[in-house]
Every structure is written in structure tokens, then in C-alpha cells.
Amino acid sequence: MTTYRSSTATARARRRTSALALLLVGGLALTGCGDDEPEEANDPTPSASTSAPATPTPTPSPSVSEEAGPEHSFSDITPVYYAVESRTGLLLAREPRETGEAGVGAVAAMIGGPQDPDYSSTWNPATKVLGITEADGVINVDLSAEARDADVGAPGAELMVQQLVWTVTQLYGDELGVQLLIDGEPAGELWNAVTWDAPVTRTPADEIRAFVGIDTPAEGATTSSPLTVSGEANAFEATVPWRVLDAQGKEVKSGFTTAEEGMTLSPYSFNLRLPAGDYTIEVAEDDPSGGEGGEPLTDTRSITVK
Q: Is-contact 102 75, C-beta < 8 A?
């Protein structure tokens, strides 16, 4: 059983992660190359409306407003973290969501589950968010008793801990500790697998984040052409392969883009011109081993081009 009794992170940095800016702007990384239409590199970045989800997934309604404090600046679009299967086990994937009350809304969206069918969450969807407060380097997240119900083993339980930690520290400060409360009391033993009785900080991104992920466009988005695909990848030699499938599953475009850095999680983006229709955009983990290291991780978005 994993016990979280590490000391509280006392760093007082109130920085917002630069990842949130990437969710709204497509031009932070090098544009795509290797496509059969090289003029796409000069395509203008589409407006933020191209990444709006078609139909948001319902999430539990928070019962108490958060107490964020005046120094925190929240956005309506918030990265929320979910689980994804990979060749190395469970990892965290992020999905930008419209959350309303950013802190409480983000945790409610995490509990309610993802819009993208590639992702999953094992938190009990009946769980209510009772409140979120931050003081002295600790973010206290208070959930209802339903949070104790989860059918997971030790790896899944440890990922649930980091799922909550990454979701809330994204907003309040990356280096802060997170303490889970259940009905106002420290959570203690959970899911027959972990004990959470002290603040927990983030596991480093390169150890727990998915090797590749799409931030924009959102799952189910309706957009115009040209469009920008953006996200993050931990890629060999910074190479990020991609392809586009039509409604029948036929490949209609393919190419590669370059992440800002190789062998560490960093931003990428590329532009696409597509005629009207329904498509699946797939971005893949680069695989220099030719499959010997296991099935490469992919991330997909189903979109409609009008």
C-alpha cells in the first residue's frame, strides 16, 4: 500500500503553467512538415472557436463555491487530467474543458469523466465537490464520501491521486501540495491501495504524462479549414507523426511535425487544410524500434469540417 506522508511543498510560486496558453494558441511550436501540401506551413491560426466542444459532457454540479483568493487568475478553458493506457502502463492524458468555476469545475469534470473515448476515469461519478481552499502551500480538496468508492488496483489508485493533483495544481501552482479531504477530514486509507494523510505533490511530467496528446481541436469539434492541431509530445528526435482518416477510416493525409524539444514533453503544432466532412486526426508516438518496444501510443480527435 502506498502511503503519502511526504512533507508539504512550501514554494510560494503562483505561476500558471505555460501549457494553458497552448490550449488557446496554435503558434507556440514549429509548424508541421512532411505533408504533401507544403503551403500549409503558412496557414493562419484559426480562431479559438474552432476548438470548442460540440456538446459538453455533463459533470456533477459543485455544491460549494471554491475559495481561490484574488491572486489566482482562472480561465473558462481548463486542462483536466484522465487515465490512458500505454505500452508502459497507465499514464495521465489532459483534455481542455469548459469548466465554469475553474477549480471546482475542473475537479467536477475530472470526476464526471472525459469527452474523449480514448481516456477514462475511475472516480465515482456520484462524488460531489464540497470545496477547494489554498493556504500555506497546500491545496485542500474536499469531496463527499462517494469518493471512497473505486474499483482499482494499486497502479490505478496511484494514478487517481496524481489525476487530482495535476488537475488542481494546474490552476493554483504547479509546486503546491494537494491534500484530499473526505467530508472535511483527511482522506486516510483509500481504495484498499493508498493512504493519503499528507499533502502530495506532482510526479514529474516525463514520468506520468502520456507520451503524446492532442489539446486542440477538441473531441467532437466543428471547425473550418484551415485548422491548427496542437498538443504536447515526448518524442524521439522531436519527431511527431500524424495522419488524417475520413469517415470510412481511409487515410487522406499524413505527415510529421517537430516538437520544440526531443526526449521530453514539449509543445508541437501543425496546420491542416481539409474539405468539408467528418475526420479523425491521429497523432502518434514516434517509434524508432519498429514496434519492438511495444505498441506506440496514439491520440485521436474526431472532428467535423464545415
A: yes
